[in-house]
Structures are given as structure tokens and as C-alpha cells.
Amino acid sequence: MSSRPEFQAPPEIFYNDVEARKYTNSSHIQHIQTKLSERALELLALPGDGIPRLLLDIGCGSGLSGESLSESGHHWIGLDISQAMLDVALDREVEGDLVHGDMGQGLGLRTGVIDGAISISAVQWLCNADKSSHEPRLRLKTFFGSLYRSLARGARAVFQVYPESVAQRELITSFAMRAGFSGGVVVDYPHSTKRRKEFLVLTCGPPSVSTALPTGKVEDEESCSDASSDDGDERTVSISERHRPTKKRKLTKKVRGRQWVLQKKEQMRKKGNIVPPDTKYTARKRKARF
Amino acid sequence: MRLLTHNMLSCNIKGVTNGFPLRIEVEKSMEKEVDFNIDFLKSIFSKVEWTALVEAARSLGYNDLPEEVVDSSTMLESSDFLKKFHHALLELHLEEGALICPETGRRFPVNKGIPNMLLHEDEV
Ligand SMILES: C[S@@+](CC[C@H](N)C(=O)[O-])C[C@H]1O[C@@H](n2cnc3c(N)ncnc32)[C@H](O)[C@@H]1O
């Protein structure tokens, strides 16, 4: 998936004037971001007393996510690194206050003042080193440490991310835990490639009854059959081979021998696909460096 | 930027121990009307650094806040007080100017109401 924006350029460059407008004006994106933000707000589990809270929107962009917070009557502060995205937010007259900043440098906020934080499709950017001075681990540590300090005890932070790999999800989660958060990942629609959504739900403070993870949403009629298919051809499309931990790669290699390849090719032929003929080169052993 | 946000922001340059409150330099300020919500004011009050809010409001030309809130539970029942608090916290905006770190004097410019809090590499 080399088309992922975070692989193309640093965020403040990728989200230039053109991209910021394109992003914000797409009704498809508007719809998705609103849905994700509403779900994140729900997962924040703020007390149902109707009192507006002071929330944070990390990587707020042009304000699509923040608008859901305003809709529910909350005040929010949005942080973003892209001037172009913030300019679009100004044009759209969002109700939150905007701050131009880099979450990887830490949030400059007083201790314990924020009632909750959401971050929609943004935190994965922290895993890239966009400058020679960038050390992703350090930036994740700085970010989560500062977020933890700024939140009121017991407050939550909910991150929606499309992790690029299992390793990336673990990297983000582990730095959150190290900062003192408790919680974990909530997966909505885990069996649907299209609808699957992941939220990292963190609570400020040690684990307690109130930090128990909410359950993810599930499809109404979902077949469990694909969960047992372990040949893993279509289930792993979202994880690019390049980023999978080496250990796992070795494991799968053992399973997928020549026999497996021949079988797959036969299956594809039966489906009427054009498949190259089987030769002595098919699924041959490669040298280790390959 | 509202004074609510100013009251929460603090300078996080590496090594700075007291980055709050950021001093306000005003070129242009603004007022925008916001719905009055007593519940919010009561709940946020305990998180507001009062002296910083008084100072900030003053720098934007609003001088009606009391210097000190001694008996907050009584004050939070006074609609006169709540209205002033509401106005200072949510309706006054810093549009153009700067925020100055109290410890280092570092200037964070504010344009179109947005403070630029990006740090230089040697400040991280
Ligand atoms: C996909 S957009 C999402 C924007 C918004 N949350 C929404 O739902 O529409 C990701 C945003 O994260 C911002 N971002 C990326 N890295 C950041 C960083 N280090 N600090 C602050 N914002 C960042 C980008 O500038 C971009 O606006």
C-alpha cells in the first residue's frame, strides 16, 4: 500500500493547499471522518450529564472531526501541523480553537486540564521519520507523555488509526502504555475488510473497573467461515509483506511450498483466470538473500 | 483564539520549568458571541488559572473581572460574575499578535487567531 499518504511526504507538505481542499471537499471523506469522529466521541464515554467538556482534537486538520465535537456541544482545541489544513478550517469557521503545532514535539498544555482527546486518522504519521532529526520512538514517547499529563485523571483519549502493520499498532500501543495509560484496541466490524475500524482507547490512570475496554461493533449477519481460513490470501491484503516482522515471514514461507503454489494456480485456472504454466521454476527455492 | 485556550497553553520548550502563563502581545483582538452555558462555566472554573485569565483579559482591554475569587461557590451563583467570566473566557479572541514564554522570552506568533507553537529543532 505505497499510496498511503504518510509514505509520500511529511504531513505539512503532503497536506498542501490543493490536497487540503480536495480532502475536505470530498463528500466521501466527510462522511467517513464524521462517522469515525462520532464513534470516537462515543468511546470517550463522557458522563451523560449534558455538561459541555473541554476536549482536544489531535491532528484536527480542516475540522471535519472537530465538528462532531461541536455538534455535541463540547468545546475543543485542535492541533495540526499543516498550515493549509488549518486555513481550510478557518474558512469553514469551525468553532474550536486551532493551534499550529507538531504532536511529536509534545503538547504544550497545563497539567490535568483536558477532559478527553480524540485523534482521527492522524497518529500513524508519528511513526515516520520525516527529518533527519526525527526519531519516531522518541516522538511517540514525547507525545504520549505530554498527552497523559494534560488529561484529567480518569479522562480518556481515543485514537482512530489504520495501522499499516501489526508492528506499527504495537509500537503505538506500547508507547501509550509506557506513558501510564491503560486500555487497548477496540475493533469494530473485525471480519469485514471494508468496514473494519480500529480505535485505540486509552484511559489516564491505572487500570480499574472504569477502564474496562468497550466492545467493538459487529456486523449483523456475518459468516464466521472466513475466520477459519488460514491460507490467508485475502485476509492479509492490508498488511504489506515488507512491514511484517521477519519471524512471521519465515513461518509462512514454510507453509507455502511448491505444493501450495501449484494448488493455488490450479484453483485460479478453474476460475477461468490466465495463469502461467507450471515449470521447474515454479515456487523454486530462493537464496537466503532474496 | 479564545482566552480559554490561552489559559490552557503552556510553553514546552525543552528545559523550561515554568512556561505558564504565556504573555499576550496584541495587535488585533475580536469579540464573538457564544451561547451562555452555566454548567460549562461551573465545571471549567476549577481548571482555570484565575490570575492568568484576569491578566489576559486585561491585555485585550477587558477590565471587569475581579482580581481574585475568594469564595468560588458563592461567586458561581452570581449571574453578574458568570456573565463576565463567560465573556472573558469564551468571547474574547486574540486574532493577531504573539504569545511570549515567561521564562525564555521566546515569541510564538499568532496569525488569524492561530498561535504557531511549532518548536525549533534545538528547542525539542
Ligand atoms: C487524514 S487527516 C485527518 C484530519 C481530521 N482529523 C479529520 O478527521 O478530517 C490527518 C491530519 O493529521 C495531521 N498531522 C500529521 N502529523 C501531525 C503531527 N505530527 N502533528 C500534528 N498534526 C499532524 C495532518 O496535518 C492532517 O491534517
TrEMBL record, chain A:
What InterPro entries does this protein's entry cite? Bud23-like (IPR039769), Bud23_C (IPR022238), Methyltransf_11 (IPR013216), SAM-dependent_MTases_sf (IPR029063)
Pinpoint the Methyltransferase type domain residues. Answer: 56-154
* Compartment annotation: Cytoplasm; Nucleus
| Keyword Transferase appears in the UniProt entry | yes
Gene Ontology terms for molecular function: rRNA (guanine) methyltransferase activity
Q: Where does this protein chiefly localize?
A: cytoplasm
Compositional bias (Acidic residues) spans? Answer: 219-233
UniProt cross-references to Pfam families, sorted A to Z? Methyltransf_11, WBS_methylT
Gene Ontology annotations of biological process type: rRNA (guanine-N7)-methylation
Where are the annotated segments for Disordered? Answer: 212-290
Tell me the ranges covered by the 18S rRNA (guanine(1575)-N(7))-methyltransferase Bud23 C-terminal domain, including all copies. 202-288
| Keyword S-adenosyl-L-methionine annotated | yes
Q: Which family does it belong to?
A: Belongs to the class I-like SAM-binding methyltransferase superfamily. BUD23/WBSCR22 family.
According to UniProt, the name of this protein is: 18S rRNA (Guanine-N(7))-methyltransferase
Provide the species name. Answer: Stephania yunnanensis
TrEMBL record, chain B:
Q: Which Gene3D superfamilies match?
A: 2.20.25.10
Q: Which SUPFAM superfamilies match?
A: Trm112p-like (SSF158997)
What name appears for this protein in its UniProt entry?
Multifunctional methyltransferase subunit TRM112-like protein
Assigned protein family: Belongs to the TRM112 family.
Organism for this UniProt entry: Stephania yunnanensis
UniProt GO molecular function: protein heterodimerization activity
Q: Which PANTHER family match?
A: MULTIFUNCTIONAL METHYLTRANSFERASE SUBUNIT TRM112-LIKE PROTEIN (PTHR12773:SF0), UPF0315 PROTEIN-RELATED (PTHR12773)
Listed under subunit, the entry gives:
Interacts with TRM9.
**Gene Ontology terms describing biological process:** rRNA (guanine-N7)-methylation; tRNA methylation
Give TM regions. Answer: none
